[in-house]
Amino acid sequence: MTETSPLGEKAATARLATLRHIAGIISIVAGLLIFAALVTQITDQISVGRFEPDQYFAYFTIQTAMINIVVLIAGGIMALRLERDTRLYTAIRASIFSYALVTAVVYNVLLRDIPNDDGYVGPVWPNESLHVWIPIYIALDWLLTPGRVRISWSALWLAVSYPLIWVGVTMVRGSSTGWYPYPFLEPDGPNGITGVVIYVVGIAAFIVLLAAVAIVINRVHTRGVRGVSHGRRRTGPIPVVRADLR
C-alpha cells in the first residue's frame, strides 16, 4: 500500500473543500425550491377559496418541508463558511434524511392515487418536488457530501421524537375536530383503531430504521478521521478520508 504524498493530500483536500462548497450552494437552492413549492401551493389554494391554514400546516409533509427549508439553507451557509458541520446539525440532518424518505415512501405507496374530497387538483410540480425530488436529493446529499462529523446512536432519539409528538398532537386534535390529515389515521376508517395503531407503529419503526441507516452511513464516512467524533471544529483543512476519494 502506497502512502499519499503531501502534494496529493493537499490536492485531495482542496477538491473536497470545493465539493463541499458546491454542495452548500445546491443545498441553499433546494431550500429555496421547497419554499417556492409551498408558496405555490398556498397561493393556488387561496385563489380557489379552499386554503385552510390550520389543516394545511398540520400535514407531516408540510411541517417537515418547513423544517427542510431551515435545515438546508442553514446547512448550505455552514458548508460555505465552515470546514465541516457541527455535531448537532449533523444529527438534525440525519433526522430529516429519515423524514424525507418516509414521506416519499408513504405518499407514493399509500396516498398518491387518493383524490381530495372536494375534487381539487393542485399544481403538479410542488407536489412532486416535496414527495419525490427533494427526498431523492436529501438522500443523495447525505450519501455524498463531505465535511460531516461522527454522531452517536443517541441521535435516534432525536429522529423519532418529532414524529411521535406530531402523531400525538394530530390524534388529540382529530378527536376533537373529527379531521385527520391522512386516511390511515382515521379511527373511524375501514381499518378502525387497530389499523391506525398498526400504521403508526409501522411508520415509526421505518423512521427508526432509516435514521439507523443514516447513522451507519455517517459512521462509515467518518471512520478513521481524527478530531471529528465530537463535532469539534479543526483549524486545519478538511481531513481526507479514503471513502471520500471514491
Topology:
Layout: H1 6-47, H2 53-56, H3 60-81, H4 87-111, H5 124-144, H6 155-177, H7 192-221
Helix pairs in contact: 1-3, 1-5, 3-4, 4-5, 4-6, 4-7, 6-7
How many β-strand runs?
0
Question: Oligomeric form of this entry?
Answer: single chain
Average of the residue pLDDT scores: 87
Global outline? globular
Count the helices. How many?
7
Helix content: 55-70%
Order of helices and strands: HHHHHHH
Low-confidence sequence ranges: 229-246
What does this protein structure show overall?
With 246 residues, the protein is mostly helical. The chain has helices at residues 6-47, 53-56, 60-81, 87-111, 124-144, 155-177, 192-221. Helix 1 (6-47) runs antiparallel to helix 5 (124-144), helix 4 packs across helix 5 (124-144) and helix 4 (87-111) packs across helix 6. The longest helix has 42 residues, at 6-47. It is globular. The chain starts with 5 loop residues before the first helix and ends in a 25-residue tail after the last helix.
